[in-house]
Amino acid sequence: MTPCPKCQGRPVSGFMLVNRGDGDCTLEPSRGCSVCGGTGEITEAHAAHYQTARRWRRQRIDVGTDTLRSAGQRWGVSPAVVSKAENYGIGDPWIFERMAAELAESTESEAQRA
Ligand SMILES: [Zn+2]
Asked: How far is the CA of 112 from the centre of ligand 1 (A)?
C-alpha cells in the first residue's frame, strides 16, 4: 500500500453532522476522498493507474480535441467509465493501458514534429 496521491494520506476533509433519524445528530469525520475511499492509502497498482490517468487527463484537456464522450466511443465504454478512470484511477486495467499507449503515441508524434 502507498499513501493516497489525492489526499496525501489524510482523507478526513472536515466534519459533518449526521442525522441519526432518532432526533439525535452526531458530529463525524467526513471522509471525502474518492480515490482511496477514505482509507488514506491505495495499492501500488491503483497509484500507478491514477498517475497514468491524471497525465492522460491533463493532455486531453491541453490538446482540447478529445472529450470523455469521444474517448468512450473510441474505447467502447460510456463517458462515465472514462470519467471515473481519469479522476479516480478506478476501472478495468485495460483502460489504463490504453491511456498509457495514447500518451506514448502523442509523445512520439511530438518528437516527429520537432
Ligand atoms: Zn485519498
From this structure: 38
